[in-house]
Structure formats: structure tokens, C-alpha cells
Amino acid sequence: MSEKTTFNSLKISENLIKKLEENQITEPTAVQAQAIPVIAEGKSLLFQSETGTGKTYAYVLPLLTKIESEDNPQKNIKLMVVAPTFELASQIKTQIKNISEIKTTLLIGGAPIKRQVENLKEKPAVIIGTPARLLELFNLKKLKLENLDAVVLDEVDRLIAPELRDFTMALLNSPKKHVQLIAASATITKPTQKLLAGTKIKSDGSLEHEVETLFLPPEDVLRKRITHLAIFSERRDKIDTLRKVILAEKPSKCLVFTGKLDQVENIVSKLNFKGIECFGLHAKTDKVARKSMIDRFRSGKIKILITSDLASRGLDIPEISHIIQMDMPSNEDFFVHRAGRTARAGKTGINIVIGDEYEMNQFARLEKKLGLKVYPKMLFKGKLVSPSELEKKGE
Fold first, then answer.
1. Looking at the DSSP assignment, which residues form a beta bridge with residue 153?
2. Which PANTHER family match (predicted)?
3. Regarding the domain with residue range 14-215, which homologous superfamily does it belong to in the CATH classification?
4. 221-393, what's its fold?
């Protein structure tokens, strides 16, 4: 019988293990058990694991352990974590702060660059940020990466999408010495794998990476821990249908997605008018307001948050009981990431799609492709019921 894997057996520092226990984290997840030894050896790694499986700590724990072991870890920037959105970057910083006192600085677009320059003068060992702002600070010679040991690309598929790719690749070419490259996501495409496998991060112009890959078998969160419901609604009636669904389900914490940015405020306005308190979050929301809203949603002070797909990737907000999708995204990865905001850390959750005839057909095709079990539901006397239940009642 094989010995049980523990954070101690993975050689995570005692300081970090103690902090993990204070946060009720006592055992490594599957991805942590497999990724930590590879990263601890200093190897470059591209790994894929489902949402909610603990990817952030899979790379943070071995890298922080290494920084802690150095004589003067606070003297130079040792770790740079790159994230596609302000929300994810902020969340990663919070997760590090929860377990470590290593000085960490957040460098994101939309925030005062002057303040960030001042923060860099405090000599953080870890920097976390969005690619455009990180590159801007580097080009201004305010960000010094000559002592960098590792670069992490979190949600790597987003980081090398067309709108961010140039910034990301320029950052990868910024260090003048060999650095360890770690890239992670819930979904990694073959082009991403091919691109990073060929990435060269040089020390003397001749050294290049050999990036190992780790693709964990799915825990089948999408099928085993999430209940999928389909509710038909004509497009013009969707917001009222949403209102009735919320009243019927009484979710403890609900995240509502719409693919149309301009619909976020419209939905918020109409629900608030009908007496349902909710708040909206999208790409044009002020950065300070976005952070405040997510913090309040995470703490439970906000129970219903309406958002564009901005918030669908990477965010780890506990105890979301319901996801409601007001449309079917054109990209199936967005569907997976939306649904994956619930049923995290071993919990269960409900994913509801409110769609018209075309979207219900799309959902049916996706049901078959992903091997889901989707339950059609109807609203009847303030409750969600299946069509077969109504037939039995003769309604």
C-alpha cells in the first residue's frame, strides 16, 4: 500500500503548512500532489486541471518554499505571476497573503502606475499582474527582472489569445537568464501546448526550455457534481424568467452570466426594480468598484452578482450554489468555465441555462458532446418542475 501524500512529504515549508492548516487545508489535491514535485525540482511545466482543483497552490507552494529557503528572499524579485484579468491577479495575491508573509506586490492596469512604482521600491520577492502593465513597468525600467527565478502564466490560454499574446511573449523574453516557466489552465489547447513547448528562455543565447506537460484526468466535476437544468424562454422574456427562477430556487449565492456586456446593467436595473437586490460586474466597471464587489460577493454580503464573461475564468469564490447562464456562449470552453464557478473544492452546485429555441438546440448538442445529463425544467406556481411532472398532474 502506497504512503499517503502530505504537504510534509511534498517538502513544503513548515511555515506554509501551518498557515494552510489555519485555512482548513490539510491534504494536497491531486494536481498539487503531482505538480509540486516537478516544480520543486526546478523543471518547467505546463499543466491542465479542472476548475476548483487547487491549481494556484500547486505552483505557489513549491515556489514560495524555495523563496523562503533563500538567505535574503526579500532583496530581489524572484517570482512573477502573470494573469489575464485584474480579478484573477488580485485573487492570487489574496491566496498568497493567506499563507505567507513574503512581500508581494500587485501590478495591474487601470490602477495608478506611480503608486505601483513606489511599491516596487519596497523590494517585493513576488509580483503578480496583468501582462500589459507588467511589460509597461519593465520597459520604463521600473521592474527589474535580472534575479527572477520563475514565471507563472495562470490561465495561459487567455494569456496567449490574440489580444494579450504580444504582451505575454514579450514578458517571457524579458529575463536575461534562464528562468523556470510554469503555465496552468483548466483548458489548454494544442496550439498553446505547441507554442510553449517551443518557448526559449535564454541565459547565454543557447539555453532553452524543455517544458514538461501534466494533464490530469478529469475529476468529472462538470458531470458528477453539477446538476444542469435547461429552461426555455423567449428572448424578450428572459429577464422576467430569471426573476422567477431566483424566487423559485432562493440561491444562497448566485452568479448570473450574460455574453452581452450591455445587458449586465439592464438585468441589474430590472431585477432591482422588481425588488431583487443584485449587482453588476463587467469590463467597464471601475477597478476599485470591481474589487469591492467581488470581495463582498465572496464574503456573502452580495448574494446575486450579474456579470459578463469577464469573471468566468479563474475566480475561486466559495459557496456559489447556482450559476445561471442567460445565453449559450459560442465557445464551449466559456460554458465549462462559467459552470465551473460552482461545485468547487468538492462541493456540489446547480448550473441553469435560460435559452430560446436556438440556444436550447445548442445546449442539446453540447449535452451530447460533453456527456452531460441536462434536466429540462418549467416554471409552475412559483416552482421549477419537470415537464413530466406537469403531465402527471394533467396540467
1. 82, 183
2. ATP-DEPENDENT RNA HELICASE YFML-RELATED, DEAD-BOX ATP-DEPENDENT RNA HELICASE 47, MITOCHONDRIAL
3. P-loop containing nucleotide triphosphate hydrolases (3.40.50.300)
4. Rossmann fold (3.40.50)
